[in-house]
Amino acid sequence: IKINHQNGQQDADGRKKMADIVGCRMDLDLFEREDFLHEMIGYSGGCLRDLFLMIQEAGDHAESWDRERITKEDFIHAVNGLKQDYRNLLSDKIEPGAGVNVVKIKATEYIEALKNVHRSAEDRAAGNSEAVLDLRQNLAILSYNGEGWDALHPIMAEVLRDQKII
Question: How far apart are CA 96 and CA 87, in angstroms?
Answer without folding.
Answer: 23
